[in-house]
Design goal:
This protein is an alpha/beta fold. The chain has helices at 21-32, 42-46, 50-57, 72-80, 92-101, 110-117, 128-138, 147-153, 195-207, 265-273, 302-314, 321-328, 332-348; strands spanning 2-7, 36-41, 61-65, 85-89, 141-144, 159-161, 182-188, 211-215, 251-255, 278-280, 294-295. The strands form 2 sheets. The protein has a 6-stranded parallel sheet, with helices on both faces. Strands 8-7-9-10-11 form a 5-stranded parallel sheet, with helices on both faces.
């Protein structure tokens, strides 16, 4: 197979490793060495630079990171008219990103909302969002990472679910730094004040006043954190890029309030692969990980369980073997043949 992966910077975050999962697939295929793979950026792809055009001309499959910045209508039509199969992968973070760009009706996700709105009488000239959604309609297949997304997009084009995997090779050499400090890495996508979140933070601050906080949130919400860790506090050789700083983290704290949940799924797998415990507010989007960590809304006595988890972490008591084994079983390299099978079936399907 000759495959081109087209990536954007729309969802990239150095602090949370939210880089598009297509890059993980590209790296795994390149390491395998049995297929020709190229990685091009969206700017070169959209303007059809010489290098990206040569790569796409030599390919039989183009995999695009679905982002509302793309004029998918023209780009997909261009390459399909030249006999190429085109797949669009829609990351959860792109769904969330699109929510902030375009208005939506309650209960509907923004990208699918854009698609459905086109059938209204109010639609006039094609704007960027319409080019994006009609481009999706032309795609040979849409890839998503959850069953909820699959249900949403099933009316648009053929949909396949490929779950989130991790790059365990980038993690296996990380050695936990165990000392007297207790560091909590906190990540929330809530932009509004959340009293329940504040109560959990307060509980940790009061119960463990020596706690240090590493705020890796992408949102602008102000959190009542005490003793925040800065880059200057990191040991030598450790940067503030994910996953470099994970060896100093004792607890992962996630607070997902998006309409479509699951943005932190890969992060939680990566923590589990390093035996780092985690907590999150709700199980939606994380159901199959619920037995490996603390999901606060699942327990009336969450504060007691949280205390127990923190005590075990402070004392360096490790009982996360089951979660660790599950996490490393989700290594991209171990599932790349499943992805190739899906790609092969898409190539054989008539357009």
């Amino acid at each position: 197979m000759n495959i081109v992966f087209v990536t954007t910077n729309a969802t990239l975050s150095k602090s949370t490793n939210s880089a598009w999962r297509g890059i993980l697939l590209f790296n795994a295929l390149r390491k395998m060495g049995l297929h020709n793979v190229e990685l091009v950026n969206s700017v070169d792809f959209s303007c059809r630079s010489k290098e990206s055009t040569i790569a796409c001309n030599n390919s039989n499959l183009i995999v695009i990171e679905g982002s509302p910045e793309f004029d998918l209508l023209n780009t997909i039509n261009h390459w399909k008219s030249r006999g190429k199969k085109v797949i669009v992968d829609i990351p959860l973070l792109s769904e969330s990103f699109c929510q902030n760009l375009y208005p939506k009706n309650e209960g509907l996700f923004s990208i699918s909302q854009l698609y459905s709105d086109y059938h209204s009488n109010e639609s006039k000239a094609l704007d960027q969002s319409e080019k994006f959604r009609w481009g999706l309609h032309l795609a040979d297949c849409i890839l998503v990472s959850s069953l909820v997304q699959q249900e949403i997009w099933s009316i648009t084009a053929p949909v396949r679910v490929i779950p989130e995997f991790i790059d365990y090779d980038s993690l296996r050499d990380k050695v936990r730094i165990k000392d007297s400090s207790f560091i909590v890495a906190i990540n929330t996508n809530s932009c509004e004040k959340d009293n329940f979140l504040e109560s959990v933070i307060l509980r940790i601050n009061e119960k463990y006043p020596k706690t240090k906080w590493l705020n890796i949130s992408s949102s602008s919400a102000k959190l009542a954190l005490q003793n925040e860790v800065t880059l200057a506090d990191f040991p030598g050789g450790i940067s503030n890029n994910w996953p470099d700083f994970l060896p100093i983290v004792d607890l992962g704290f996630f607070w997902d309030t998006q309409v479509l949940r699951g943005s932190y799924y890969r992060n939680m797998l990566e923590l589990m692969s390093l035996h780092i415990p985690w907590i999150i507010n709700d199980s939606r989007g994380y159901q199959d990980l619920s037995k490996y960590g603390l999901i606060i809304h699942n327990h009336l006595n969450w504060y007691e369980i949280l205390d127990l988890e923190i005590q075990k972490s402070v004392l360096h008591i490790n009982d996360l073997d089951e979660g660790y084994l599950y996490a490393i079983s989700q290594n991209t390299d171990d599932h790349i043949n499943e992805v190739l099978t899906a790609f092969s079936e898409i190539l054989k399907t008539p357009s």
